[in-house]
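Q&A FORM
Asked by: J.P.
Topic: structure of Major facilitator superfamily (MFS) profile domain-containing protein

PROVIDED:
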Amino acid sequence: MNCSLSNAMSARALLYSLSLTPKAPPDISARRKIPGSDSKPRCPSPFLIRVRFSSSSQEQRYSVFRVSARRSSGKVWADVKSETYDISDSVPDSVKFEEALDGVVLGEEEKLESSVSWREQFPKRWVIVVLCFSAFLLCNMDRVNMSIAILPMSAEYNWNPATVGLIQSSFFWGYLLTQVAGGIWADTVGGKAVLGFGVVWWSIATVLTPIAAKLGLPFLLVVRAFMGIGEGVAMPAMNNILSRWIPVAERSRSLALVYSGMYLGSVTGLAFSPFLIHQYGWPSVFYSFGSLGTVWVAVWLSKAHSSPLEDPELRPEEKKLILSNSVSNEPVKTIPWRLILSKAPVWALIVSHFCHNWGTFILLTWMPTYYNQVLKFDLTESGLFCVLPWLTMAFSANLGGWIADTLVSRGLSVTTVRKIMQTIGFLGPAFFLTQLSHVNSPQMAVLCMACSQGTDAFSQSGLYSNHQDIAPRYSGVLLGLSNTAGVLAGVLGTAATGYILQHG
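REPLIED BY: S.T.
REPLY: Here is the structure written out as tokens.
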């Protein structure tokens, strides 16, 4: 009789200890007198109670409670000790409290999990990355269409190569003006507003390009410069918003995906522009591409936020992950210019960006003309063969990002990883581009272009990731500084190429 009372009391103490109401731990050693008995019978050896606390698709965790009872001076104590182990697949028959606990403890959690759709479970930080990817897709679609449309336009308006070079380089005039300003703006007010403004601005300028061309060369130059103003704020704004949303371990992959949007934008623009020009005339390229910006802006305004702290729909566990692996998300009020410009890594980035863009922008603007005039491809072939290098860049950028993040996660220093990636991004294009002067067949020329652009894309995990490494709070300003030097390379290199072509 006493043993059964002891066992009942122990089970009662156990159930009380499993109460869902948050309280201080109850006194397990509850005491109760056993009436009508002066003897001291001994209970059998301790018995086991297995209780499931959590479960997953393949694993269920149980705690084994060793419950023993002892009697002293007419009182009984229940001692409960637990030890945890994992059980896979099968559930023992000895589980007695499983159904009750599932209904109380686990049922509510499982209902909450099942009520959350896969869209809500998708990480919000990667929604931001995909939206930035889409913005850069539109960015290069609107930029690269001029390199195809310039061929029929120059024939219609009788522009010589020097004029074509001037038109191509006019984009960089506005692009140069807004690099640092866009970085300051993004760091102080947030990347959401700045990137949204940029897309609206350059989309309007794209739509106005055919009208300006008909009005005259000065109007066209102004509109192209205005387009550069809109696209000039995009990179600093993107860098700012990703520095607040993306943990360090995901930085290379996220940036590689965003910048691959630029490459795929070039692919899309170069692939569809010849078809649109052939079917509907060259103005259709600017009207159709420019109108896509309105769709992107509508989604951006409803889904994006400048930082995780501003997003009311962000899941708590993702917010904790982001904030525990990032710098302060507070807006920047002052820019320490003297401190920034006194650092050698900053100047290393500036020089690297200039050298990188010297080759990249020349290829971006003059590759279709090279294919058409040197390799003797027609307009459609020029556009199609221009696609291959940019497809190669999209693939190799994401490959380089995965390699870089893997190396960082395995313990290699971030500095070493950035140097490795940038070395590939410089030496690879240098080798393949120098081979063009020795190549006789168009197929080999296209292959050299593709290999050059493919290795160039490793820079996304090199210099383009390094801004957030060395100055995460001022990443927008820092990218504005280095990209200003890069834009200067684009202005000088693009215009100089047209001058060289005209003078043999």
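FOLLOW-UP: The longest strand covers residues 59-72.
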